[in-house]
Amino acid sequence: MNGKKGSFEINIPPEATKSKLPGTSKEGSIGAFSSCKAWIWSVWEFAKEDSNRVKFALKVGLAVLLVSLLILFRAPYDIFGTNIIWSILTVAIMFEYTVGATFNRGFNRALGSLLAGVLAIAVAQLAIQSGRVAEPIIIGISIFLIGSITSFMKLWPSLVPYEYGFRVILFTYCLIIVSGYRMGNPITTAMDRLYSIAIGGFVAVLVNVFVFPIWAGEQLHKELVNSFNSVADSLEECVKKYLEDEGLDHPEFSKTVMDEFPDEPNYRRCKSTLNSSAKLESLANSAKWEPPHGKFRHFFYPWSEYVKVGAVLRYCAYEVMALHGVLHSEIQAPHNLRFTFYSEIQEAATHAAELVRSLGKDISNMKRSPKTSLLKKVHSSTERLQRAIDVHSYLLASNFDPPDNSSKPLTKLPVTFSTTQYDLSNPLTEFDSNSTENNLSQTNQNVPSGTPPQQTESYHEMMRKQSRRLHSWPSREVDAFEEEGGLGMDFLPRMKALESTAALSLANFTSLLIEFVARLDHLVEAVDELSKMAKFNHEGV
């Protein structure tokens, strides 16, 4: 080395001396920044979806701050002492998202605290008069009895709405009676804590009512109107896709279930309508506690009727979900067969969706408008669909023959329908004898005269297999039929049954649509009853 004989030199680049370990500090900081950015974006989207969420959070912070000032300032703390902490607990427990829910929770809180305080004072006085030996025994037995009775009563079906009140009775009684036993003055302890609870409840109600109030009645009103629009949009979306779908690009059913049909946004909205029963009932129970406000200016507003209308609407939404099931089922009617009844199905669905939107608009505007003309349109379009199915019922089963033209006139079918797998003059049996021979005769004309016999037969065999592949349902490779023994005697009856099943898919879709229209009568009656009890204004007033 150093130029000496027999030595050699190794040059190591300076970059190689630096160890490049994965997950360096720079890469880690970039990953943390990206995850933090994604989290902030998700929070922003969540707040943007409903601005009331931000208002609710700010109101809770304001209410807690106001009651905390009673502890931060010296004068209120000298009056109430450590019992003022109960006001903070009351605000944190009592403050709810809507005004009605806050009133409901406040009523349970006030009634439970009052009953617990009275019981605690009575039992404490009885224990004190019984002597020092019997005092802890009486207090222990009373705690056991109160805990058992309140826990049992809150499970009673008719008392479930007051479950929070029984819970308040339990922990308020236990805290007052135990702390009063140690401090020696249960009456003073109970009164101070009741005052603190009253202050917390008063602050919570004032902030919730006068600072950006969120009314449960308005939430219920908007939720029901949105449900009407969701059902109407989902119905139109489903029918449109069913009529325009040619079956060229059908994903696997398992994939569509996992993805929940991402190309159908209205499907999820309709699905949420089916799951809105508990939400509507909760909002209705909270709205009953609210005073007259906004558009709801009279006492004893019929909030329970909103729940009934929502139940009837879900009754209709079930049919829409069933239509989606037919749309994404494995067994599908040919596109040309669906196109035969295109105008009738489209007209019935359009008029039904228009009626549903009109009902939702009346509830939104709190107006009463006559629905006679819309109902007549819906019923007439549905009757036309039923007549069309009756006239062309032979298309829905491959073993039926078309009706006699002399006894009953038929409406002219579209020209495109003549190219479908369903021959209007005869079912599949005529296909094997006529259409195949026509194809073979055309191919014979196209085959040159010098073609060897073996090549001609192979070409004929290829055309025959192609024809069989086109007219087989479900779509299967020809080799699968060959492995099963070829075209046996039972092949044609089996194919007729399969084709009839595919055609009956259309009959199932139309029957569900007709059932949806039939259920609209109940929906109109429910909305009319709501408009009468809520005293909606007549249209034009």
From TrEMBL:
Subcellular location, principal: membrane
UniProt keyword Transmembrane helix present: yes
Membrane topology annotation: Multi-pass membrane protein
Residue ranges, annotated region (Disordered): 427-456
A Pfam family it matches: ALMT
GO BP terms: malate transport; monoatomic ion transmembrane transport
TM annotation in the entry: 56-77, 83-103, 110-128, 164-182, 194-216
Subcellular location: Membrane
Family: Belongs to the aromatic acid exporter (TC 2.A.85) family.
UniProt protein name: Aluminum-activated malate transporter 9-like
